[in-house]
Amino acid sequence: MRVRLRLSTASLIALVPGAALRIYPIHRPYLGLELQEMFPKNAIIALVHGDWRPFGLHQGSALLDLLRALISVWYAAGRLIGVYHDRLDVFAAFVRSPLPFVILGRVVVCSASIASLWLVGIAGASLFGELSGTAAILSLGAIFIHVRESHHVWLDVPAATAAFAAAFAAVRAVEDRSSRSLALAAALAGLAIAVKHSTFPIALPIVIAAVLAGDMEPVRVARRLAFVGVLASLTYAVLSPAVLIHARETIELLRAQSRIMFQVSGGMSLRVLVGAGIGWATLLLALVGLIASARQAPRQTAILASFPVAYTVPLILASLLYARYLAVVAPFVALFAGHGATVAGRLLLRRWSAGGAMAIALLVAAEPAMRSAQYDRLLARDDTRSLAGRWISRHIPFGTPLTLPNVVPYANPILPPNADQLRLRYPREAAALIVRGLGEPGETYPARYLGFFDKPTEDWQPRTGFVVLARHPVVLRRMNPPYPLVHRLRAAGARCVATFRAIRQPLASNVLYDELDADYLPLRGFGDVLRPGPNITIWQLPGSG
To answer: Can you tell me the distance from the alpha carbon of 273 to that of 229, in angstroms, rounded to the nearest whole number?
Structure first.
């Protein structure tokens, strides 16, 4: 099998809109305690403490380790030019402004995403022809869930890229009977699992390739299987040493995660997530391509289809699903959808099959591409939590008592943390951060809270200062303030002095959120969403300000 690493002009043109949907608005401060800040924050904490232990042993550590290495270089450069004096200075910089470090993480994930576009293009062209490669790029470029996860500093898109690269290398190993390609496939499989443990079904295409990539004599097959097993394991061990060092704890965490996934109900059904995240038209086109590929090249198809099929089986059985899980299979769906477009074009418009294939690919990609563009447009808008924080800083003097929505700061306005908040969020590092000037009483607000997660503070009474209420009809709705509290505020003479609207209410039936991810941006129904965040109101109590 001949593999051209350079894309055709048509494929490069097709790649541009997909790349643009992933790059824009990478510079904007869209918020997310987990999906944006978790990995950069924990990479810096690992740097501060001089270790490489991942914060979540059950998740895979390759992405965290890469960010830890990049931030180490960042720190070294900063120390060289006198910006940082020690490692805690880096952490203090993050607490003051996470955005530069978050952008670093976004660049890593976005680069992996664009690499996926390139990979499906060369895979489609190598396996099915240039036209299929171009159509595959168009398909993946538009798939909503892949675009969405390309904006998050999370595991799914890098894992998807590594898994797809491993499967494609496995196909090449079988076609060329190349031990080098087989070794590459095994190493990439180890990388995929090191990024995200749930990609372990990538072992299946590697095993199939090891069986088919040479003489079928049992001893030789066993040698190839042993070879790929050892190489994949070594790659994983090099990239995830802490997971192996703490193997018992990792296994317990994986068991706990499995119990949650299969025994706890929550979120949306797989059917709803597939429709919103990938799209039924794209999936139907991929099915056409899969059937055609199975008839033309059954060995290639078995290798390429084995991973997404095996990966999807647990999702079918699970009772708790995140939308982002589907991003891992998106490149595989796009590859077969690209081939499906060429097959459909050939069947429907024989004389103009190329034009027909592109028309079908564009038609199917149009709706998810439009939703992806709407998602990007919302990401570029200021979050209500940022707007509320800005208003408070401009209109309320530091030191004025504030009552915030929750101890857990998902819905809270973005404000500099006070000393108590530093101790709560960073117990090991708080004292050093306070020494560096963070949490100063003259630059922060003393805070009370209306609740802790979904438990309201029952004995809370309005006193003095300002009260911030945050409400959303879907996301973290159990943390919404109870309506009697608003009546209590009014009875105390409080008046609403600022309002920041994120969504129109009542919520339209077509608006769909992934509740589990605590993400204030929807999967569809963008027309009813004004900006990210909850609806926020700020109330002033008598005698304040």
So the answer is: 34
Q: Which residues are CB-neighbours of 131 under 8 A, at least 6 positions away? A: 342, 354, 357, 358
Residues 310 and 388 in one domain: no
Query: Which amino acid is located at 212 in the chain?
Result: L
301 CB contacts (<8 Å, ≥6 apart)? 290, 293, 294
pTM above 0.85, yes or no: yes
Pair 205, 164: CB distance under 8 Å: no
Q: Is the pLDDT of residue 516 over 80?
A: yes
Instruction: Decide if 407 is inside a domain.
Output: yes
Quick one: which H or E segment has residue 497?
Answer: strand 495-500
Q: Is residue 274 within 8 Å of 283, Cβ to Cβ? A: yes
**Whose CA is closest to 103, among 23, 24, 26?**
26
In this structure, are 392 and 366 located in the same domain?
Answer: no
> Cα angle at 387 between 19 and 417, to 5 degrees?
100
**Same structural domain, 353 and 391:** no
In angstroms, the CA 329 to CA 258 distance is 20
Q: Which residues contact 83 (CB under 8 A, 6 or more apart)?
A: 89
113 shares a domain with 47: yes
**Number of domains into which the chain is organized:** 2
Look at residues 471, 469, 461, 458 and name the one whose alpha carbon lies nearest to residue 502: 471
Which residues constitute the domain of residue 208?
Answer: 9-22+29-67+100-379
pLDDT at 350 over 80: no
- Listed residue (193, 253, 246) closest to 51, CA to CA: 246
Q: What is the pLDDT of residues 57-97, one digit of tens each?
A: 888 899 999 999 999 999 999 999 999 999 999 999 999 99
Contact by Cβ (8 Å): 421, 474? no
pLDDT band per the 50, 70, 90 thresholds, residue 499? very high
Q: Which carries the bigger pLDDT value, residue 405 or residue 353?
A: 405
Q: Which helix (H) or strand (E) holds 537?
A: strand 535-540
Distances from the Cα of 355 to the Cα of 62, 122, 182, 250, angstroms:
42, 20, 36, 52
Residue of 301, 277, 278 whose CA lies nearest to 289: 301
Whole-number Å distance between alpha carbons of 170 and 314: 23
Contacts 24+ apart (CB under 8 A), 354-361: 354/131, 357/131, 357/132, 357/135, 358/131, 358/134, 358/135, 360/135, 360/285, 361/134, 361/135, 361/138, 361/139, 361/285, 361/337
Count CA within 13 A, CB hemisphere, residue 285: 34
Residues 438, 301 share a domain: no
Q: Which of 379, 396, 420 is the last residue of a domain?
A: 379
The SS3 call for residue 81 is: coil
| % of the chain beyond a pLDDT of 90 | 82
